[in-house]
Amino acid sequence: MKFHRVLGQIVVALALLTGCKPATTPKTEGARLFVISFQTLNNPFFVELNEGLKVSVEAKGDRLVTVDAQYNSLKQKNDVVELLQQQPAVVFINPVNWEGVKATLIEVRRRNVPVIIVDAPVSDPDLVLCQIASDNVEAGRLACEALARLKPAAKVVIIQHSVNKPSIDRVAGFKAEMAKHSAMKILDTQEGRGGTEGSKRAMQDLLTRFPDLDAVFPINDPSALGCISAIEAAGRAGQVTVVSVDGSSQGAAAILAGKLDASVAQYPREIGRLAAERAYAHLAGQAVEKDVKVPVRMITKENASALLGAK
Known about the structure:
Largest sheet: 6 strands, parallel
Order of helices and strands: HEHEHEHEEHEHEHEHEHEHEEH
CATH superfamily of the largest domain: Response regulator
């Protein structure tokens, strides 16, 4: 019996790590089930967000099942639909595509399960209980403000993730602030999909096409690391100013190393905690606000060490 119990635990662990079917997850007597689907877990930001949510859920004696959509909208839908068979109390979704997730949201509503969106707001907010995310417009604005201080006449390129609402909002905030700085110019905007490798390829292309570019705004720290890699490979280290969003440990380390000039910090654990707080408030019959924005703050060399210490 002991052998079979241990074997079952190993199978569950492997399922969560690989994004496989979680239907065999054992139930804890009396515990409510909460589930979350992330667009990817190949990003420290989402790992921290999941941890913030998990700690809050388990503190209540409940359990959390986490799945990784691996940037695949269809996989995200299939994962969520399968998890609905376990009758979760609440579903949390970090959508791959802010518009493409609509069919998934409709299916969850059909099952009368409340949905809370974390980090990446959706185009149909009426389909969800609430949305909790960083103030991404402000994050983009702060990133441009930092760039304007460092390089007032920057010739900048943007590396975006076009189907992701945080990216859309960050780019909008960046451009709104840039309108105040007439000497700055956007040369081009390219798709990096929010990841290191995609952003590296995009930056390699941009460096070739625009030899005079001297600044880049990648929409998150993984994208920034990809851009930095391309800049170094092109022999342009120290010549291209890089500002991003996340304030991750990796981003702070890159700032201290002189590779990243600034990053606007988000607080993923706080997003997870607030998501759990709203879920429990709703289950207790309390009203929940529809849109929760979590403040952001600028990280530079002056405070990057303190951020790393806090991590």
